[in-house]
Amino acid sequence: MSALRWWEPLRQITVAAVTGRRPDSPKLLLQLAIAFCVVVGAYDVLTIILFLAGGPYIGPQRWVLFPDFIVYHAAGRAVLEGKLGAIYNLASFSDYLNLNYAEYFNRKLIDFRPFMYPPPWILMTLPLALPGVAMGYGLFMASTGVMATLLIGRANFWICIAALTSPAALWTMIAGQNAFLNVGLFYGGMRLLDRSPMIAGILLGLLSYKPQLFVLIPVALLAARRWRALWWAIGTAAGMALASLLVFGPAFWIQFLEMARESSTSQFTEQMYRHVATFMTTIQAAGRLLGVPPALATGAQLAGALAALVTVWRAFSRHPLGDETTAVLAAGTLLVSPYLINYDLLLVMPAALMVFRRRVGSDLHPGELLFYAGLWVIPNLGIRLNAKGIPVTPLFVAGLLFLAWQALKQRAAGEPGSINGRVTGP
Fold first, then answer.
1. With a threshold of 0.90, does the pTM exceed it?
2. Rounded CA gap, 48 and 160, in Å?
3. Do the beta carbons of residue 184 and residue 202 sit within 8 Å?
4. Positions of E strands within 75-165
């Protein structure tokens, strides 16, 4: 009898995974998703604890602790020491890292670890350069994780917890990156567009410190005719730029612009791909890994960016705001930039759960369940596949954009969705 009780749910899940046919109870698929996220999340939490504790190691390995945060810390420290000229000069900044942070890099010579953020990011993170690296890293991870949880809101609390323990979050912790903050500003801003356009615009405008994640936000707000939020977003971005100009001076901005120009040269691009290609998630990077000529890879990237822009415009100009439009924007954003790393995929993890929550109440596409599972682990799996010359990560991002559009059409048609385990209408 016990075997029969287990067999029937397994049979329904298998059928749903292969054929896409909805099981008798959509709640079954939600329970499966919860169990999957819990197991993966527990593994990720254990991995990062052991990583920071110095072993025994499991999961992905790195030869240096939180290298990206060290770059943030070094830039802030250079400002405090009056060495602004070293920050946007590749050779000078490498020398500064080798002189002041050699113990964190196991005394290996650093020749390519540039600081590529605009000056407002230094202004935002300058206090983190006051304590030591380890304490600054802890404060940064803890504060941005809490901020993401609070900004996403109670209605999506468990979605946030799942995302913050996902493989993309694990890589955020390993690198010491700002993806938690990105998620909080993005989803917090989108959530508050109706309730408080001013606060929403400020949150979204703050995301301009990472221009490749900000680029489609004005497009979405313009398409949705959310004028107040749009002006607050633009004003916040401009205000941050002006504040950093007043603090650091115009010469510092000129140095940043020169660095940005240099980063577009073939020499810089080749050097970057040599160091981080296996971690990259974009269409252009996939083309390069496949041996496609650079011009053709760039053309494919532009085509993907145009498709994303059009999809975002149509979604926000024709449909009311909601989880589905937010998911379209998140997935579209990750198709635009040619320079994104696996931890940037954290931006689409809450969106994937939101789309799944809408889609689970209807018939799915064949293999759709397997797609969600693959998307969840692709920040880890994608590195290994990239190393073998099989760059599939952009396909998962494009697939999520397609499914987010499907969920949006499903909501518009009044088809049922599943929310917190209950099958409901829109």
1. yes
2. 18
3. no
4. none
| 3-class DSSP state of 357 | helix
pLDDT of residue 79: 95
Q: pLDDT digit string (tens) for 249-286? A: 999 999 999 998 888 787 887 888 888 889 999 999 99
Neighbouring residues of 265: CB distance < 8 A, sequence distance ≥ 6 = none
The token pair at 257 is 């612009």
Q: Which amino acid is at 83?
A: K
CB 157 within 8 A of CB 149: yes
Q: What are the residues facing 280 on neighbouring strands? A: 341
Query: CB 176: neighbour CB atoms within 10 A?
Result: 21
Beta bridge partners of 422: 419
Closest CA to 182 of 153, 157, 154, 203: 203
What number is the average pLDDT over the span 56-83?
88
- pLDDT-derived band at 61 (thresholds 50, 70, 90) equals low
pLDDT at site 57: 81
* C-alpha to C-alpha distance for 335 and 340, rounded to whole angstroms: 9
pLDDT of residue 8: 66
Q: Residue 69's pLDDT is what?
A: 95
- The identity of residue 327, as a single letter, is A
- The predicted pLDDT at position 88 comes to 94
> What is the number of residues in the chain?
426
Which two tokens mark 88? 């946007």
Q: To 5 degrees, how large is the angle CA 26–CA 31–CA 33?
A: 100
Task: Give the span between the Cα atoms of 26 and 245, in whole angstroms.
Answer: 54
Separation of alpha carbons 339 and 341, rounded Å: 7
Peptide bond into 56 cis (omega under 30): yes
Report how far residue 186's alpha carbon sits from residue 384's, in angstroms, rounded to the nearest whole number: 29
Q: What is the pLDDT of residues 158-178, one digit of tens each?
A: 999 999 999 999 999 999 999
Joined tokens for residue 355:
């789309």
Residue 23: partners with Cβ closer than 8 Å, 6 or more residues away: 9, 12, 13, 15, 16, 29
300-311 pLDDT, tens per residue? 999 999 999 999
Q: Are 158 and 166 in contact (CB under 8 A)?
A: no
- Distance, in Å, from the CA atom of 92 to the CA atom of 98, rounded to the nearest integer, reads 10
